[in-house]
Amino acid sequence: MRMKSSYIVVIAILVVVALAFTIGSLSGDGKPKADAKAAQAKASQLPTVQVLVAQETLHDYTVTIRGRTEAARSVVVRSESAGTVAQTPAVEGSFVRKGQVLCRLNVDARQAAVDQARALVRSRQLTRQASTDLAAKGYRSQTQVLQDQANLDNAQATLRQAEVALEQMNIRAPFDGVFDKRDAEVGAYLAPGQSCGSMIELNPILIVGDLPELETSRLRVGATASAKLLDGKVLSGRVRYVAREADAQTRTYHVEVTASNPSLAVRSGLSATVRILTGQGPAHLVPVSTLVLDAAGRQGVRHVQGDNVVAFSPVNVIEETPQGVWVSGLSGAVKVITVGQSYVAEGQKVQIGASR
């Protein structure tokens, strides 16, 4: 059957319209796809970095130095008189109280001198009393009474001198502490000024160290401090002394921290890591691997700003911990570059591969 010509015209028009729509849709979709592919290619050319979002935290500012424990006082106890050592009551290395006898010398004739002086004092007292009674009755002049009083005063002074000489036979501890070393044994002769032994005071104990000159302005007497010994023991104390003059060789300043040591368990001469609190302020905890140097040699971190552009910020290391380093110099939440920080530069645009 032959189709009418009018039908053929209508069908032809419909085919043409369909072809036009098809071609238009194809040409319209191609442009966005091309733009997307171009943008993706451009992004793929940017370096990829990984970042860590470090939050701002209030943290203690500290100064850390290497130090050692030291006796608060160390004294060589010397003889004030001459004599032979008769006894050594104090055990070497033991704790002794103030006034305890460390070495005792032979008294020789010193006890007899004391007895003689005491007898003379009693005689002078009787003479003075008799003169006073006679003067009251008018049988003795006031001058004689004054002379007898002077004689009594002289006898009392002689007695005190003899008693001091006798007491000097006992060489005593000048303070509570440890009789660390004996220098004289029984039978040894000590001349005036020769040593009986050494004493040290371990409670409180000192932790001493040397402070770099750049840190001296941050430190003050009375600041809280802690010292960690090699065995893990931690001592708490306060700064008692900061030198005003630097060591001529090292250009450092001597620092002393006092800490309680009631059991005397901490000995003198132990190595310690001393942390001294200098204040509080904002800080960020970052991995130690993120610390880099810029072209000027400043230590800092590279981080990503809001427009994915790399920036550099100089920082000061406050404290090193197993979790990372606490630094100051940053503000607010910072996207610190943890991977790729050594291969990008300030002002360069990057893409973030992963965050944590």
Automatic annotation (TrEMBL):
Pfam families: Beta-barrel_RND_2 (PF25954)
Family annotation (SUPFAM superfamilies): HlyD-like secretion proteins
InterPro entries recorded: Beta-barrel_RND_2, RND_pump_MFP
Annotated CusB-like beta-barrel domain residues: 210-276
Record-linked Gene3D superfamilies: 2.40.30.170, 2.40.420.20, 2.40.50.100, Helix hairpin bin (1.10.287.470)
Protein keywords: Coiled coil
Keyword Coiled coil (UniProt): yes
Coiled coil regions in record: 145-172
Family: Belongs to the membrane fusion protein (MFP) (TC 8.A.1) family.
NCBIfam families registered for this protein in UniProt: RND_mfp
Stated name of the protein: Efflux RND transporter periplasmic adaptor subunit
Organism name: Phenylobacterium conjunctum
Organism lineage: Bacteria, Pseudomonadati, Pseudomonadota, Alphaproteobacteria, Caulobacterales
